[in-house]
Amino acid sequence: AWYLVPLLFVTVSCGTLQKWAMRSTTPVLEKSSDGLMQEGNWDFFRASAPASIKFLELLWLQDKENYKLLSVLIKSYSGYAFSVHETLAIEDELAGVEDSQAKKDAIIFYTRALDYGLLYLKHKGIDRNDLLSNDFDKLKQKLKKFDEDDAIALLYTGQSWGSLINLQKDNVALVSQIPNVKLIFDRVCWLQHNIDHNICDMFFAQYEASRPKMLGGNPEKGEAMFLKTISKHPRNLLLRQFYIQYSLIPMMDTEKYEAQAAVMKEEIAKWENLNRDGLESVSTYKNTPELNLYNSIAKKRFLAVEKYKTKIFE
User: Fold this and answer.
1) Vertex 295, ends 158 and 53: CA angle to 5°?
2) Where are the beta strands (DSSP E) in the chain?
3) How far apart are CA 240 and CA 298, in angstroms?
4) Distance separating alpha carbons of residues 129 and 147, to the nearest angstrom
């Protein structure tokens, strides 16, 4: 069988070369993922994202030890679920749709992201039992293994887990896992507090505002946190939309909602201002293109709230 040796060598070499090539391009894929944040057309993002994500997935299947690429895949599935299907699910919920396909799809894609996240965490020495343990000190210690290179994978694993809980609040077993999710965010936000444009601020404000006091929540504190981060980052309209969604609507505060709605309409108009002075855009948002996707999501969700506001605040 000596004649098989050259063939085996070529096969191994090609496989090694292929993996080397993919790993050398992974940083480009990471940057491309960041570049999607500049897409301000929600419908275009919705149509184009699946093919891009599937391409990433096929690349990763050829090199399952490429954890950088796995990190991008976790973020991609989680971001797609959040941007598209959860956004549509919110409108279905406001409309009173009982069997929302959008909600089912959001759960499907968040689950994919979480499953990939669990693979990443297992690589770092944390398994399902660790994550579900009530021994929070032990989980904190294990999470200390994660450094800044792991922050994106850890963030979007936590984001997917938390969103699955939020979408299935009638599942008592899931809801009981919220403190475990918070520990993940505690670690991520300690590593990079400003990661991916204020996700930490959004999470912690939502965490306080959306839980009733009997379950340890503090709606007043959550509202204050929202207002503080909005004042610091006024161009991020998703922060203001989260304030409406997770603070003002649960409080049924019509007066504060109308005040925020007026600001949202004004800011969305500024963001969408594509009038040009020669070749120069006059939009006041031209210097924050990295917020375009967030702002497109905020607009989509806000318009759904406006559509059903009479029903919401009746």
Assistant:
1) 55
2) 276-277, 280-281
3) 8
4) 21
Q: Which of 159, 189, 184, 197 is nearest to 36 (CA)?
A: 197
Count CA atoms within 13 Å of residue 236 on its CB side. Answer: 21
Please report, in tens digits, the pLDDT of each residue of the chain (314 residues total). Answer: 433 434 443 444 444 545 544 555 555 555 555 667 888 899 999 999 999 899 889 889 888 999 999 999 999 999 999 999 999 999 999 999 999 999 999 999 999 999 999 999 999 999 999 999 889 999 999 999 999 999 999 999 999 999 999 999 888 888 889 999 999 999 999 999 999 989 999 999 999 998 877 778 889 999 999 999 999 999 999 999 999 999 999 999 999 999 999 999 999 998 987 555 555 555 678 888 889 999 999 999 999 999 999 999 98
Pair 107, 101: CB distance under 8 Å:
no
0.85 surpassed by pTM: yes
Burial class (CB in 10 A: 0-12, 13-18, 19+), 8: exposed
CA distance 72 to 151: 11
What is the C-alpha to C-alpha distance for residues 163 and 109, in angstroms, rounded to an integer?
11
> Are the beta carbons of 269 and 283 closer than 8 angstroms?
no
Q: CA 71 → CA 2, 48, 116, 120, 174, distances in Å?
A: 41, 20, 8, 8, 24
30 burial via Cβ count (<10 Å: 0-12, 13-18, 19+)? middle
Name the nearest CA neighbour of 114 among 159, 175, 60.
159
CA distance 305 to 260: 12
**CA angle (184, 82, 54) in 5-degree steps:** 100
The first and second tokens of residue 255, run together, are: 């007066």
> CB under 8 Å to 98, separation ≥6 — which residues?
none
Residue appearing with tokens 């450094």 = 147
Taking the C-alpha atoms of residue 267 and residue 155, their distance in angstroms, rounded to an integer, is 28
**Phi/psi of residue 133, nearest 5 degrees:** -70, 145
